[in-house]
């Protein structure tokens, strides 16, 4: 099944559910609504627990407001639910703690994640928040693959990793932002040292 | 399709997620990342990639092996400056054929590389193999610094004097001496150190006194020049609490002055005057975990002996050339 044909229903685009079975309605933080099958929901530990706790019947789903997922936008949530629908019924992998991880990215997932890194970043946050183990596995693998064939200097650029000096400077800036007086004290101290004074007080 | 060097803010992911990303990297990418900054090093450490063994061999070359549960990687240190022969100043590292030529590690020496690798792979001890006498002992000590020397292997080719010096000056837990003859006096000096295991290979001038001085838990002597009579004396002293109290397991092979085809006579000579009873290997396996844990433990029935203080041990004799004693409690 292609990414485009994955059975996630955007309410604005299709008001009638695709299949006659239990499904749930979710709403993103930008008010986009999705209908997702019960089986697909099981891929997300967080959502699965949530709907179990709510104890919704089919009528509740229709009559009550959609379940709000407040920290994920519609574009990201659509990818998440497409992934869940495609992989519904699949066993959820258990992390055996082994390193390095052996993760294969299936073709469907590779296409789904052929997105800009900003959206990939949001997708990973969503997979982590919703606790979708395998989606998190493949998306982390995708990020790890960015390191392939890179020099250390390129890795620094790709992953935006600051040097020790930059980290130190950022730390100092953060401290100063918290306490503006700290910089004044430091400057005063330096000035006294330059003047040959050996006591600050 | 997006540019190969498009950026991804790895550090802005939740900590357990960026750990997961790093867990998917191979060893070279993993090391590449670790050298970028202190924060990056902490990050790779948090992914918990632990090695099971880390060994370094000092010989004509400085090379080694890092073993992980699923694979192993070999490495070697070299000098980018051909004139440099002090291995502590070797500044190049090759792992699985990959070399680091980046400016980031331009000040790295063999010592700093070693410390770095041990740190990121959660290891605080190494196995050191010394295969020739060229490395200055003080340099080796400087190299090890805080690193625990779990195992020291002295290979054929290093001189007796050098071997004795090494044994006196390096702290170690397990020692393997292969084909290096150690003098009697020096043997006594090294034996009084606290060791877990001591293994001697081939034709050592080991006497009964040496066995009595040894303070290790495991003592293995291959091709020893001990007679059955000497072993009998050793067992008698053991039953009278007059040997090393730490000794748990002793293995001696190739006894001398015996009739190769008369194993019964050897047994009678070794056990002469020592009360003992036969205990089957099944019974030993059932009641003593050691018999199931180690590969080299005997597979034959044993002879149970008792020490005055109630300690029991099983003696195993395999024909004419193989003696083992295992403490059972």
From TrEMBL, chain A:
Domain SKP1 component POZ: 26-88
Presence of keyword DNA repair: no
SUPFAM superfamilies with a match to the protein in the record: POZ domain, Skp1 dimerisation domain-like
Pathway it works in: Protein modification; protein ubiquitination
GO biological process entries: protein ubiquitination; ubiquitin-dependent protein catabolic process
Compositional bias annotation for Basic and acidic residues: 169-194
Chain ranges of the SKP1 component dimerisation domain: 134-178
Region (Disordered): 166-201
Swiss-Prot/TrEMBL keywords: Ubl conjugation pathway
Matching CDD domains: BTB_POZ_SKP1
Family: Belongs to the SKP1 family.
Function: Probable essential component of SCF (SKP1-CUL1-F-box protein) E3 ubiquitin-protein ligase complexes, which mediate the ubiquitination and subsequent proteasomal degradation of target proteins. Regulates cell proliferation during embryonic and larval development.
Protein's UniProt name: Skp1-related protein
Species: Caenorhabditis brenneri
Lineage: Eukaryota, Metazoa, Ecdysozoa, Nematoda, Chromadorea
From TrEMBL, chain B:
Residue span, F-box domain: 7-54
Segments passing through the bilayer: none
Highest taxon of source: Eukaryota
Record PANTHER family: CYCLIN-RELATED F-BOX FAMILY (PTHR22899), F-BOX ASSOCIATED DOMAIN-CONTAINING PROTEIN-RELATED (PTHR22899:SF0)
Protein name: F-box domain-containing protein
Organism whose genome encodes this protein: Caenorhabditis brenneri
